[in-house]
Amino acid sequence: MDRPLSYLVIAGVTIAGIAASAVAAHSASGSVSIIKSRGQICMTSNGLPDHATGRFPNAGNPHRIAAQFIEVCVPENPVRTSRATQLRGSTGFALNGVMIRPGTADYYDPSSRRGFSRDPASGWKLDGKGAGAMLGLDQNNAHVDHRGLYHYHAKPAGFLKGKNSTLVGFAADGFELHYVGPKAMSGYTLKPGTRNGGPGGKHDGTYVQDWQYTGGAGKLDQCNGGTLDGKFVYFVTDSYPYFPHCAWGRVSGDFGTP
User: Which residue intervals of the chain are DSSP H helices?
Assistant: First the structure.
């Protein structure tokens, strides 16, 4: 039997015959349904948030926000394995139905008018948050892709505002995503000194290659994983990598591709 998740705020939909609570919505009216069914947690949404967004298109982002049809499922009871799987494209979803896509497909390219392109030849990949101004991120650390898909690259400020629960959503392998502020410390640090080649300049976080995993006592693992109330979860952090870029569980077939 399909079961609605009782701890979720569902915007503008009815699930299993139960009228869901309305929330203050973006003018384009976000809607989301999240249920547990046959060992999976399944989310269906139109991809629009339950909070105001920035203006799209803008100087760094030429695309217009548009409703989507999104339907993804993750394991209800994920099992942690001994090897992490690197994630590409969408790495999870927030409870408001917005997709989480922390990475980019853009690289430093001095021959491009914008200074970056999809050509990976330089080896210097833009970080979504670090290059936020270049990519037109809004106040929620989100922007829009060529399809009009609104998605988060880092901490979803609008979604978290006024929220009582730490639960943000689910990663692609089914483990929960939580935000607890500075209580969860990333294990990544900026490399010292200046870049060897490429764009030059100091390692300032604009590029993924500016960061290194150094770990340490009390720090999260390389996938932003740790323990909360005795169970393994991933954390949304204020600093890089912001969301997990890899997964310890078996990744759902609905994820893993750009």
Answer: 132-135, 157-160
Here the tokens at position 220 are: 């999260």
Residue 11 pLDDT: 39
- Name the helix (H) or strand (E) containing 35: strand 32-37
Assign residue 77 a region: left if phi > 0, alpha if psi is -120 to 50, beta otherwise? beta
Residue keyed to tokens 């169970």? 231
pLDDT of the residue at 182: 96
Residue positions counted in the chain: 258
Only one residue has tokens 């994820």, namely 255
Q: How many CB atoms lie within 10 A of CB 211?
A: 19
Answer whether residue 167 is part of any domain: yes
121-177: pLDDT as tens digits:
999 999 999 999 999 999 999 999 999 999 999 999 999 998 899 999 999 999 999
Q: Domain containing 221: what range?
A: 1-252
The helix/strand/coil state of 159 is: helix
For residue 257, being part of any structural domain is answered with: no
Contacts of 102 (CB under 8 A, 6+ apart): 91, 128, 129, 152, 153, 154, 241, 242, 243, 244, 245
The per-residue pLDDT for range 54-79, each reduced to its tens digit, is: 999 999 999 999 999 999 999 999 99
Total number of domains in the chain: 1
Is position 64 within any domain? yes
Whether 258 is in a domain gets the answer: no
Query: In b/e form, how buried is each residue of 36-75, taking b as 16+ CB within 10 angstroms?
Result: eeeebbbbbbbbbbbbebbebeeeebebebebbebebbbb
pTM of the model: 0.89
